[in-house]
Amino acid sequence: MTAIAARISHSSSARSDIVPVIAQFVRGFSIEATRPTREEVAAFAGIAESSTRVYVSAVSTRPPQDVIEAAIRLRAAGFQSVPHVAVRMFATAGALDDFLTRLAGETAVEHVLIVAGDRDQPAGTFRSAIELIDGGALQRHGIKEIGIAGYPEGHPRISQQELDRALADKIAAAEATGIKVHIVTQFCFDVAAILRWISRLRDFGLEHPVRIGLAGPTDLAALLRYARRCGVRASAPGLAQKSGLLRQLFAMSAPDTLVEALARAHAGCRLGVVKPHFFSFGGLLRAARWASAVADGRIALEAEEGFRVEPAAVMR
Prior knowledge:
This protein has helices at 3-6, 18-26, 38-45, 65-76, 93-107, 129-133, 137-140, 160-176, 191-203, 220-230, 236-243, 256-268, 284-295, and strands spanning 30-33, 53-56, 81-86, 111-115, 145-150, 180-185, 210-215, 274-279, 299-301, 307-309. The protein is 41% helix and 16% strand. Residues 5-13 and 245-250 have low confidence and may be disordered. It has one domain (3-315): TIM Barrel, CATH 3.20.20.220. By secondary structure, it is α/β, with parallel strands linked by helices. The protein contains 13 helices and ten strands.
C-alpha cells in the first residue's frame, strides 16, 4: 500500500466534518452518457450546472453519427460535450476526418476523449489512440484538449509496462503539438488500487488532471454486467461490500463509500487535480441527480462509512 493509501484513515478531517470535504471533492464532477435523448438532455439541463462535462461514449455496435447527434443535443442545451473518438470504429482516415469536421462545425467541440475503442478487429487501419493524437488532425479541427484513458486496476489484455509506456507516449505526442491532456480512468471499485495508481502517476512526474471513473447509482446485476463487458475486476460478494450493497442488497447501489474515501485522501494527501467521473450506464438523470445532491452537500452520513443523499427520491 502506498503512503497515500495508508494515510486515508488518519485524515485530519473528523467524520463529523467530512460532509463539506465530500461536497468539495464532488463539485466539478463529470459524467458519461450513451445516446441521451432530447428529453433526457432537457431534463439534465435542469439538474446539472452548464459547466458540467458530459462525455459522450462511442458504442462499437452503433454508428459514429450517434455521437455527433448527442453532442448536438447537448450543445443546444448549453453544455459543452466531450465526445469519445474511438479510432478503431473508422474504416478510413477520410471517415475519421469527416467525423471531426462535423464535430467542430456543428457542436463547436474543443475537447474530446481519444480511445482505441473496444472492437477486437478495427474497421480500418487505425489500431491505437496515439495514431490520431500524433497525426495532426486534432489540431486542424480546433481541438485544444484531449482526454486519454487510464487503468487503475490494469488491463486484461495489456501489461502494466505497456500501459505505462502508452500513457507517456500519448501525453508526449499531444503536448508536442500544444494540446492539453487530462486522464479519465476506467471505472473501479477498489480505493487502494485507485490511490496506488495516482501515486505512481505523480511519482513519474505526471501531474495532469485525473478524472476517476466511478460507477453511478445502479443495481448489482447491472454493475457486474458492465464490469465484465469492460474487463473490470469485480465479483458479486466483493462488489457488494465495496459498493455498500451489504447494507441494502436489493436497493440501488451508489458509490458513496468510494467517494468518501477518495474525498478524505484528496483532502489529506498530495493527489493533485482529481475529480470524480461518473459512468451512468444508461441512467443519466439518476446519476446526475445523485452527483448534484452530493456536490451540494445534501447528504446524511451512515453510521460507520458512506452516506445517503437527501431527499431519498434522488435515486429514482
